[in-house]
Fold this sequence. Notes:
The protein is an alpha/beta fold. Helices cover 28% and strands 36% of the residues. Strand 7 (164-176) and strand 8 form a beta hairpin. It is globular and about 55 Å long. The protein starts with a helix and ends with a strand.
Amino acid sequence: MPDSIFADPRLAAVYDPLDPDRSDLEPYADMIDEFGAHHVLDVGCGTGTFAIMLAGRGARVVGVDPALASLEVARNKAGAEAVTWIHGDATGLPPLACDIAFMTANVAQVFLTDVDWLATLRGIHAAVRPGGRLVFETRDPAREAWREWHRDATYQRVEIPGSGVVEDWTDVTEVALPFVTFDSFVRFERDGEEIRSTSTLRFRTREEIASTLATAGLVLDEVRDAPDRAGRELVFLAHRN
């Protein structure tokens, strides 16, 4: 079940305006040229920004997400017709034979149990061709990013066309490593409605991730710094034999 911040239609509608700078995605999009990829899978595509960016570069793109409200936003964007949208997750995909699969925006951290995480990796393994790649990012637990997830550091107030002034912020409620739980608040000044969404992320170590990749039949090639958060997030690149 996706978190309300992605599944609530009113929250999905303001997701992009509250985080408009997605220049962090450009280095990932460049990887389709780096690896000569033409058929791409975007796992946890959300509101479709990355999938549409890839399609605009000429790739054949499949975007999958369990949050229907986010997919509805994606389907109504310019360029959305070039993407195949699937409501669901990576465990129930049709045969695809993709060249590369991506999980951006720390999607890899939403899988809290090893069972769910391995099922996702195995689903991606089945969706990419032999030699096909998986690229995903995750926060380095050693950097303790959650220490900055509080109202003083995250609060913003944004004027959004059609929605009016919207406030949002984040507050951590529990740190019980490897799990971190936090509340995301969005308040619409126009009618005073405040919507709270509770999320939990799992912070896996580099060694844990390498082990689970191997279990799923994926070979870890390298670990890079995240392009927008060097030293804070890790980018894993693996391939299917």
